[in-house]
Design a protein that fits this description.
It is built from five helices and nine strands, in the order αβαβαβαββββββα. The protein has 325 residues and is an alpha/beta fold. It has two domains: 64 residues; 243 residues, ATP synthase, F1 complex, gamma subunit (Pyruvate Kinase, Chain: A, domain 1). The radius of gyration is 30 Å and the shape is elongated. It holds the Pfam family ATP-synt.
Amino acid sequence: MANLRELRDRIKSVKSTKKITKAQELIATSRITKAQGRVEASKPYADEIRKVTETLLAASTLDHPMLRERENGKRAAILVVSSDRGMAGGYNYNVFKKTRELRALLEEKGYEIVTYVTGNKGVGYYKFRGVEVAGAWTGFSQDPGYKDTHDVRRHLIDGFIAGSNGTAKYREGLNVAEGEEIQGFDQVHVVYTKFESMLTQTATAHQLLPIEPVIEDEELDFKEGILADPGEIHSDVEFEPDPDTLLAELLPKYVSRSLYALMLESAASESASRRNAMKSATDNATALVNDLSRVANQARQAQITQEITEIVGGAGALAESGESD
């Protein structure tokens, strides 16, 4: 059994760690509320831009590259949304696992994979494993601002419009020389963490481009999805300029807004995952302090008992020696 001093030192150390994990838990809890508020605040704009886009699709005959699957596609871009900091439980591990699954599926279909990353943890993960990263953006995983995420959003859109046979212009964060153009791609996928509840966050692979129709019960929903059938929707709105011109301008904004919404959801999921991890660590620290305190009390009681026994034994020996004299 460890001596009493060692037990007291360990109890002190665990209590100090518990203070840190408890503080992290409280900070993460406050950030969840803020992140959820930002998601809710962004919904009115998202709903309106979706409605306008659907109306334009109903009145337009434009064959936009964002709306159709490319034949003989060669390259697929994957954006991995990770965190800048650790102490978030399995948040990053689940994202990396889902990315491996998506990567294997696309490679099986013959696509060349181009990897983009947000968050320091993702950058470190792929650097350690020797995986080439075409672009990385860090510093905003918990609080993504529209300006902070501009370069990554615009590059993914520009790269897709350019296609694997074209090039997109240089933007901050790309791993090429400044001013150098980079080859485009034919698909864009995002691996992010979907916020289900305070206790559940799910790593999800989402195809951002080309835009997919809404599917419900294994049937295409042509009434509410962005790819609604123009033949079934009749628009009474007059557009100026013409619907094709408006749609060509609005679709990139629609996709950019959709990607930003995924980043906001990932930020809420990161804070929730960190809160759960820190709460678990705090609970474990509390249980460990209780166990160590129990052992320390037993050691202290044993020490006291031994001292009393030694005192009584010594007193008895003195008494016997006095009687013998």
